[in-house]
Amino acid sequence: MENNTTNDFETAIRPTLSVSNGIAAVEFYKKAFNADELMRVEAPDGAIVAELSINGARFFVADGPPEAEHATPEKAASIPIRMGLIVANPDAFAASAIAAGATEVYPVADQDYGYRLGHIIDPYGHHWEICRPL
């Protein structure tokens, strides 16, 4: 299989964060990271799928229904993925997230491996490393 090489198609990876309260999670990401809501689909039961953007970096947020195989962090035994958010001012982004309700794992600081990086956990159990290259 060949990769699509046309100039009018962008290949991208867009993660979906499974959460237990999609509407509240979208509001958290708006407040914590100044995210823009690009799209939202709402089911009759109130469950949502929304696409968000943080300075152009896009991702989805979706309610994880109990019958689905998409475990939310609250239900999973472990979280195998950390979201890396690379921004110009990681200190300000981390402070905003903590003020909005995230838990600090370790503060933003210059790391030996060439990044200014801190680690938080959002109220829905997702881990975020907020950073920029040094």
Record the SSE blueprint:
Blueprint: E1 16-19, H1 22-33, E2 36-42, E3 48-54, E4 57-63, E5 82-86, H2 90-100, E6 103-110, E7 115-121, E8 127-133
Parallel strand pairs: 1-4, 5-8
Antiparallel strand pairs: 2-3, 3-4, 6-7, 7-8
Helix pairs in contact: 1-2
CATH superfamily: 2,3-Dihydroxybiphenyl 1,2-Dioxygenase, domain 1
Instruction: Tell me the series of helices and strands, N- to C-terminal.
Output: EHEEEEHEEE
CA-based gyration radius = 16 Å
Total beta strands: 8
Share of helix among residues?
Answer: 10-25%
Name the beta content range.
35-45%
Number of domains in the coordinates? 1
Major sheet attributes = 4 strands, mixed
Q: Classify the fold: give the CATH topology.
A: 2,3-Dihydroxybiphenyl 1,2-Dioxygenase, domain 1
CATH class: Alpha Beta
- SS class: alpha/beta
The chain-level mean pLDDT equals 87
Shape summary? globular
Give me the side-by-side strand order of the main sheet.
1-4-3-2
- Report the CATH architecture: Roll
How many helices in DSSP terms? 2
Which stretches are poorly predicted, pLDDT < 50 over at least 5 residues?
none
Amino- and carboxy-terminal Cα gap = 38 Å
